[in-house]
Amino acid sequence: MDLEALVDAMTLQEQVSLLSGEDSWSLPAVSRVGIGKLRVTDGPNGARGGGSLIGGLSAAAFPVGICIGASWDPQLAREIGSAIADEVVSKGAHVALAPTVNIHRSVTNGRNFECFAEDPELTAALAISYIEGLQAKRIAATIKHFAGNESEIERTTMNSRVDERTLREVYFRPFEDAVKKAGVWAVMTSYNQLNGTYTSEHSWLINEVLRGDWGFDGLVMSDWSGSHSTAPTVNAGLDLEMPGPTRDRGQKLLDAVETGEVASSTVRQGALNALRLMRRTGALGNLQHHQERVDDRPEHRALIRCAGAAGMVLLKNEGILPLQADGRVAVIGPNARTARIMGGGSSQLNPHYQVTPWEGLVGRLGEDDLSYAAGCSNHRWEPLLEGEFTCDFFASTDFSGPVVHSEQLQNANAMWMTPIAAGKVRQGHFSVRIRGTFVPKETGLHRVGLFSAGYSRVKVDGQLVANAWDGWSRGRTFFEEGCDEVVGTVTLNAAQSYEIEIEFASKPFIDMETHAFRLGIGHPMGDADIVQAVEVAAQADKVVLFVGRSGEWDTEGSDLEDIALPGRQNELVSAVLAANPRTVIVLQTGGPIEMPWVDDVPAILQAWYPGQECGNAIADVLYGDAEPGGRLPQSFPRQWCNNPTYSEDSEIYPGRDGHVRYDEGVFIGYRHYERAGIAPLFAFGHGLSYTSFALSDLLVASRPDSVRVAFAVSNTGDRSGSTVAQIYVGDKEASVPRPLRELKAFRKVVLEPGESTDVQIDLSMRDFAFYDVVSRCWRIEAGAFSVSLGISAVDIVAEVDVQLEAATLSV
Ligand code: BGC
Questions:
Q1: Do 487 and 549 fall into the same domain?
Q2: Is residue 509 part of a domain?
Q3: Is the C-beta atom of 65 inside 6 A of ligand 1?
Q4: Which of 4, 51, 230, 671 lies 20 to 30 A from 691 at CA?
Q5: From the CA of 305, how far away is ligand 1's center (Å)?
Q6: 493 C-alpha to center of ligand 1: Å?
Q7: With a 6 A CB cut-off, is 477 part of the ligand 1 pocket?
């Protein structure tokens, strides 16, 4: 079908209708001209489908971004993209809101788990493959968030101040490659402002850089409620305002065309971009009713299990791993019997199932030789109250009038999105009474924690215990639309049933329409739990200790306050190590933590959030059925204060008066540690194998339009395994500040014992250039460049110099 003719056959009103969502996850159909509905779904570690972020039909939970980042394996990223495309289809959608490619700037960014790496080369390479995997099946990728969205603090208003060279060299790079090399079909702007302008109305960013310099011909959408205006966003090239129903467009846009603020040709272009996306994904003529279904495939299960192991990083191993299947094993820690499979926020989904580490180990070893103790907790909030809850909705904010709708919840956590209460109430104008019961397992004091985007309070057997209603104030929950957790205490008896009643009333939103609450009840753990863990450890031959964080900490909507292990986990680690030094630590976090016990522990495995097969993938690596395939995609500093964003000047991080200044420029991650002379605890690119490798025979030859790098890799050990050869480039005579080494290529190599292979990689001229802001081009300065071969940013095996002539390359 000729899209130009189709768009011209549409009325202005119809064209305008395609420039904003109809609801949270779709565009309206235009049946008069045979245009179906385009549907989108989050992303990026699966396809959640429509409806709320919580609950919904089950979906496959893949490893999170940082785990894929740690795989250093573009082919794996492609397979994951391809499998997620199947999932998007099963959820009746055409567009995945993925991948997330913001760069790990601060170790505390709540959303680092969702992003691949601190390095633009690694991020870009994985993004390209992931996008190609999706789009080969006609599912659009939506690379996000463009750009300067490296923190969750005041995320909907913060102004990121970043110089252009840094943008071009670091933060834009994955987006640029996604457009030029993967032909990505959609881009999502970020919430923040970039150098004083919201990215959703940033004409330089969208019209000049994205479309002009890079040639993007797809659709640009806002982040959810990230559009703040009518004419400025449309004129800047933002095609689509999400979600719907529209706030800024519709009649407002028609009026803006009427007054001449927006040209009708601009509306036509936006509609054309939407139609092009519909054609690419097959949504255009599809007028069929939308169906969501569960599609739990064995091949997805297998892929997720192997991808989880491929991203696990063996940080340290003094010969204890892989474990032998003998002796008594103590399985200890707050993450041992809970599957930490994903982070928090819009990427969360309802998994088909989730395997805990305990279940993974029982599946392999049986239960007879395993013992267990939690030791302590690592919750950010009180444990979510599970069970049946009935919600009675009122079309008023004070429970007046009749109950207009009732529905059930499977736990005390809800996020209501339009249509709320089957469309019987309006956003911002309703109240809900939620009733259920709680039967404690223990007798004694319980902590009752409540937070909400809206006003809420909870009564236990008629007694008000926690009040997030009176004096409600904005906190770090529910995308900064919720208050911080309010905790009350109550003494309860084991096995007795208590009535729980939560009252919730919507309130005017601040930036995003969000109506949500969460209630948790916990029996506090104490010294006795650590003592018990020590006893269990002492009686075993070896210990596997599962510590870390969870999606409550590693989450969209809030940054971490620090990178210490939460709660009493450091104490637990030290106590367990003292009782039994044959202890393996399995860490599950979305980024680095400080490890005061690092010298005392014989083995540390970083397992991130590896998706629904969590416990199986961990057991595979612990027992050597799978290689720990991961290498760090982010430097692990000894202390947070070593990180480039840690500063006396709060404008550098977390931001001051609405501004955050990226002062470190291109010196982020390993580039910073090297320049500052700070040895990281574990370097970018680091990770051990169960076998050993030798890298040798580095040859570097300058060719007319590239630099050829060749080297050999041999497996010198007695097991098959993988390594990641990394190529770093440095300009030895630069006239501008440039990092000593920057990653420019890498290759994951899998070899049998005794096997060798030759690797050849062609570096492009761009790999040697810096961005010259004055001349608006990429510039190579004449002189010597180092080309280094290594297995981490600090473990360089060989280095060769190459002389290059001066050259300029266009944007
Ligand atoms: C996130 C996006 C996400 C969107 C829709 C926003 O809060 O920043 O990444 O795709 O919500 O859920």
A1: no
A2: yes
A3: no
A4: 671
A5: 26
A6: 42
A7: no
pTM of the complete model? 0.96
Is pLDDT above 80 for 287? Answer: no
d(CA 71, CA 49): 26
Distance 51 CA to ligand 1 centre (A): 13
The count of structural domains within the chain is 3
Contacts of 151 (CB under 8 A, 6+ apart): 105, 106, 108, 109, 110, 158, 559, 653, 654, 655, 660
As a whole number of angstroms, the distance between CA 717 and CA 690 comes to 8
Q: Provide mean pLDDT across the span 723-735.
A: 98
**Enzyme catalytic residues:** 223
Q: Which domain holds residue 625?
A: 303-379+528-555+563-648
pLDDT above 70 as % of the chain: 100
Residue 752's CB is within 10 A of a number of other CB atoms, namely 11
Confidence of residue 676 (pLDDT cuts 50, 70, 90): very high
* Domain identity same for 547 and 620: yes
**Phi/psi at 328 (5° precision):** -95, 135
Is the pLDDT confidence value at 730 over 80? yes
Nearest CA to ligand 1 atom 3: 346
Calculate how far, in angstroms, residue 188's C-alpha sits from the geometric centre of ligand 1: 9
pLDDT at 286 exceeding the cut of 90: no
Mutate to test the pocket of ligand 1, among 64, 190, 224, 558 (most ligand atoms within 8 A of CB): 224
Radius of gyration of the chain (CA): 27
pLDDT at 64 over 90: yes
Do 540 and 515 fall into the same domain? Answer: no
Q: Is the pLDDT of residue 374 over 80?
A: yes
CB 160, CB 660: distance < 8 Å: yes
